[in-house]
Write a structure and sequence with these properties.
The structure is a homohexamer of 119-residue chains. With 119 residues, chain A is mainly α. In chain A, 81% of the residues lie in helices and 0% in strands. Chain A has helices at 3-23, 26-37, 46-60, 63-75, 80-94, 99-118.
């Protein structure tokens, strides 16, 4: 996942979201609104919330959701050791069936760390 | 999902089904037969059955199954507003983890609507 | 599930909902509000929406959710033949792992039919 | 799970199956027929098939299905060491979320072994 | 979940764990050992790890696992507002199918808060 | 899945495993170690264990995991009729939602059989 690939991921996500919004009824729009609000600062900091979203996405095995939260974790300043412990809990709870997703999660994380190192 | 891409989807599905049938034992063949019969006219019309299959596929998060039922819903004359309400129930029951699949579902639906408009 | 047992189910559900609302933040309250709105009359009639909720609940294998939608289907005047076809699609999509839930779904439905017959 | 409790489990299962068959349409009846045929002697012996059904039930976390296959494994002469290795694979693949089901699986197995010892 | 009911939950868990350990092979024993180590102090504090375990358990819908992490969250001094935000993320990610588990999670939490208030 | 594609699958898996190991903490490393040990000769032969892993992967619908176990089943000398019966149990337990994965499983198996025939 090079910077280009992350931009590509974000661009495709944005493009598809526009199709969703074009068709969405009020219920779907409200769901998307709830979704964007849930990870904001509250009793728990955004960093913890993104880790919660990441682990939930790992045990439910959704690559797109995992990649999104990996990017958000990087933006929120999660350290590699913290991310790995969170993923480790997801692996343990969700079992070896999560391993292919864990691999792709760490591949994305690795690319982000390289970029951060370059910047 | 251009018309070409739908034809491609159907062609690949057909090709793989032939491999399945080449290896399938009686049990698997009977399962496939049950599957094709389940969505036929009965106490419920095919349109409702396809919506049931679509929502079940969305909450279980299977892109191939979703795309198949999206195509079938279009063939059965489901209206956009009906499809969106059904997807909205799937989103609510299945949660934000279904969103990437919802995006691809509506992308496919959008392509089919454009084709229908062209025809 | 005698009438008493249905009343008991509803009473326990109500009691637990009160605990939820006592602790719920705005996000959870809005989610519950979305949930109650999703099954109302729209492009699709409530009857179809309840069948969608039922099949989604069956393939995700949640007994409480199934029982709730079974009761709602009965209230919306779903016929046995319609309900059985919807459950049959859920069984086919979700597999034999749904059978214990299918059994309890039809047990509840059977009790409701006896009550309706008595009334 | 004393012998009485196993008898109770089987009796309840039988009772609910009768309700299912009272309402079932042809599709559901055929599904149940396929289900009973799938575990019969074939290229694989019933013992292996029951272990396959058990592990599938464990990773999908269905207590009733697990108990059923535990009873069948005992009837097919599966040894404790074999059963435990199969469950261990299910635990690894499915993760710690399967542990409560693993506990109940081994509780049932333990009761069956005591009965077999008594007989 | 009165104090007695929590003690009961713990006692039953302990009793079943003894049966597991009586049958467990080395692989299962090592898995249980990994499981107990994963939630210890590390780069992330135990409090955050318990919230991760709780949300993973909620989206995978395992009542026993949820109750266990609810008890552990209480022991680690998680505040109600923090717990509710974490559960809210689980509800959003996992959808309305998690609601029955959310109800029971907050029922258990409510009982623990009453006990803590009494002590 | 030509021989090249299998080599490609293995190469990508190896490459990603190296990224995992670069970031992995002790818990994740131990989990991977447990995973590689679980399928070794024991009370059950590796062939049976691979079939168990295959069926668990099919009902949980993980294409990478399925392909891995398909390759291992071929290496362990599983016959087509045995493989098909195992997949048939997975199809029945997991339902029609597994069909797209079943198709890809048999496509991979078919390629391996052609290669074995060529060798």
């Amino acid at each position: 996942m090079s910077k280009g690939s992350i931009e590509e991921f974000k661009a495709e996500r944005e493009e598809l979201n526009q199709i969703v919004m074009q068709y969405a009824d009020l219920g779907i729009k409200r769901f998307f609104s709830l979704d964007s609000q849930a990870y904001r600062e509250g009793a728990l900091p955004p960093k913890t919330k993104e880790l919660l979203g990441l682990v939930a996405s790992l045990v439910l095995r959704c690559d797109d959701c995992i990649k999104y939260h990996i990017i958000r974790c990087d933006e929120e300043g999660v350290a590699s050791a913290e991310l790995v412990e969170a993923l480790g809990i997801g692996l343990l709870v969700g079992g070896s069936i999560t391993i292919p997703h864990l691999r792709r999660a760490l591949q994305a994380w690795d690319e982000l760390q390289r970029e951060d190192g370059d910047a």
